[in-house]
Amino acid sequence: MPLVDRRAALRVPTIRPIQRSLHPPPITYVVPTETTSPKFAAAFARGCGGQCASVATGLRPGTFAAFCTPPTWPLLQQAQAESRDWYYGDHAYYRRGKYYRVTKNAYQYVPTARDLQTTTALRFAACHLPPIQPWQTGGSAVVICPNSPEYMRQHGIDAHDWVMDCVRQVARATDRPIVVRWKSQVGRRPFYHDLHDAWAVVVYNSNAAVEALLAGVPVFVTCPWASTAQMGLADLTQIEHPVYPTNREPFLWTLADHQWTFPEMTAGLAWKAVQ
């Protein structure tokens, strides 16, 4: 009688269904000469099971992802023109250099009503930020904070024209002093100096609005898809009548829920969250 391998005889074949992802992993494009781009690409691609490619290769078939700096914009714009999905990486809302943000088919994360209801202060607290300050209603100056000229140009806006238009609208609506803060001034004059006596902060979609909200200064946001648009007004004729949202704290908490360290990206947390 032939010998029988009992393990083989008892082994039951397992039929596994073919797994088809509803969210195919993107190609994450790298600018090799930059500092952050290669680190971001390696972490995000590992976390989503995708691949990396140099921007020099041009846009390949499939979904686009990148830490988006000027060299990646032509590929991003081509992907958008071809109605592809795209993942946009950028510096975080808090603790830049440690955390980074990613959004799908959007430049910034916009909290939903459900997000605001379910968030907690846990990740916000982990950022070790100063306490959220009470609303400041006694400031005097209107502080206008454009993004960098290069960034605004990529969105079809001339930064200087935007600033002058804001100045004209504010000057017609109030006699308050107007302060214009260019991004290049950060190293010479910390933002908190201007927030100390600010009546309101005006931005396109700059992260200066997040800093203002943390400091208790109301915001005016002219970009409709900015994260902070729901926290302020866009109409500068209402500069004397800013809004003071009652859900500011959960809004600020939920921004912290949507930024990740590179190890967290490598573990797939960012990829899972943005789906």
Q: Domains counted in the coordinates: how many? A: 2
Q: How is the biggest beta sheet arranged?
A: 5 strands, mixed
In DSSP terms, counting alpha (H) and pi (I) runs of 4 or more, how many helices? Answer: 12
Order of helices and strands: HEHEEHEEHHEHHEHEHEHHH
Structure description:
The protein is of the alpha/beta class and 275 residues long. It has two domains: 27-109 and 258-274; 141-254, Rossmann fold, CATH 3.40.50. The protein contains twelve helices and nine strands. The protein has helices spanning 6-10, 36-48, 73-81, 113-118, 122-126, 149-154, 159-173, 191-195, 208-214, 248-257, 262-266, 269-274; strands spanning 27-30, 51-54, 64-67, 86-91, 100-104, 141-145, 178-180, 198-203, 219-221. The strands form two sheets. The chain has a five-stranded mixed sheet, with helices on both faces.
